[in-house]
Amino acid sequence: MDIVHYFIQQGEGEPLILLHGNGEDNSYFDHQMDTFAAAGYRVIAIDTRGHGTTPRGTAPFTIRQFADDLLGFMDLQGIAKAHLLGFSDGGNIALVFALNHPERVDKLILNGANLDTSGVKRKYQIPIELGYRMTKLFARRSEDALRKTELLGLMVNDPNIAPAELERIFAQTLVIAGTNDMIKETHTRLIAEHIPNAKLVLIEGDHFIANKRPEAFNSAVLEFLKSA
Length: 228
Hints:
By secondary structure, the chain is an alpha/beta fold. The protein has helices at about 30-40, 65-75, 90-100, 120-140, 145-155, 185-195, 210, 215-225, and strands spanning about 5-10, 15-20, 40-45, 80-85, 105-110, 170-180, 200-205. The longest helix has 17 residues, at about 120-140.
């Protein structure tokens, strides 16, 4: 692997890996670390490739590469199996990882994930696509434009998962989103409906419920993790 992930961890017990969203870092989960650690988990929040303190490296900048990176991270840390909680692009990483490495996933929590661009409300997706086209024009001449192009590209070109593929996920799964999420509620329900026996929870709020409604979010996640 061409990178070493920066990460923070807290607590002891079953590993619970937290995966942040596009352009973020592990600090997105500041309101989750203490609570989940106190509940008896070894909570690990990583910075994905090219985010936060983790270097960009030379490998492709794609959701599938990030899922491969996660496998390398778990191997390096000696983690045979973990609960995964992914937010937004982190949820997409968790989805791809669960499809490719089902034996490494205990319980799966998908917060604000999407299968493709059709799942994002157009008022959010259109500016993303316009920004991607704009920055792409300058990507060869500017490192800053290249970085922005790669980040926006994740939301334009990835993850492209067919709903039928989700039927191969047999990890216990919680699909959780805000009632006013940037992801269409019909799309969130589509994901939950195609993962066998998935549980769906909608929390009052927008895309960032883990950050803005931490008590409600953490309560729903812990109830799911503690369930048989």
